[in-house]
Amino acid sequence: MIWNFTKMHGVGNDFVVLDGVRQSIQMTPERARAIAHRQFGIGADQILLVEEPTHPEADFRYRIFNADGSEVEHCGNGSRCFVRFVHEQKLSGRNPLKAEIATGLIILKEHEDHTVSVKMGQTRFTPDAIAFDTTDLASTQQGEDTLWVLPLPNHDQVTLSVVGISNPHVVQVVEDIATAPVLEQGPLIESHPRFKNRVNAGFMQIVNTHEIKLRVYERGAGETLACGTGACAAAVAGIRRGLLQSPVTVHTQGGDLIIDYDHQEIEMTGPATTVYSGSIDIDKLVASIPTQVLNP
Ligand SMILES: N[C@H](CCC[C@H](N)C(=O)O)C(=O)O
After folding, report:
1. Cα dihedral sign, 233-236-239-245
2. Ligand 1 within 6 A of 166 CB?
3. 160-188, pLDDT tens digit by residue?
């Protein structure tokens, strides 16, 4: 079966975007892994699928699959690419657009310069919001934020803010982003048994009250050049800790995002870039990849 796709990125967080409105796209975890594979496939951090909505107020449904095949609740950088894709492919001229994600609606507006602002939907800060088992864990208060002290299997101990932006995030403050133990601690946090649905692990350096540097070890994708929901989580965690004030410029390895937070709702603004379009025979692609690679 031939699938037309468009390769896009949001500050270096890269995606394969599929039109599931005018094409019949039956996505599976195995197919998502095949498409996302950097050597055997097209290569992407996530796969974004645009579908007809099921929510009466939504213009489209927006589904997200990580490179490991897991379907997840939200993708901030992807949402900006989603709205640019919908407009470029003339699926709709509506602006702003309402997109249905796993936990509700998000509102997206594309600007003249093709940057996009996204009202990110619900944000929660309690451990149950991210399926985090904090039984017997030490905690401490900083500003209005509760920080959880999590021992790691490598005997490090990390102090984490909890932020649920539909998808689950924990954020820690580091002195120097360049030497932050992202690749050492990231996997241990992402798959820690206390996170029942795994978690995205953010590492932020405070530059000043309106700027941070951020790296994120993403659930289901590893370290990416940028993470939109991770940028929102870090900015809001810093504001709640009393370390930051809105708006916050988040410097990621792939570029900058602007996060506005009024203690009610988060609005993220940043670019969305179309790289190329192509087509792929999905059945041939899956068949071409050794089983031990596709299903490790
Ligand atoms: N890895 C994330 C999904 C992608 C989020 C990220 N790419 C963004 O821009 O928000 C998760 O499993 O929750």
Report:
1. positive
2. no
3. 999 999 999 999 999 999 999 999 999 99
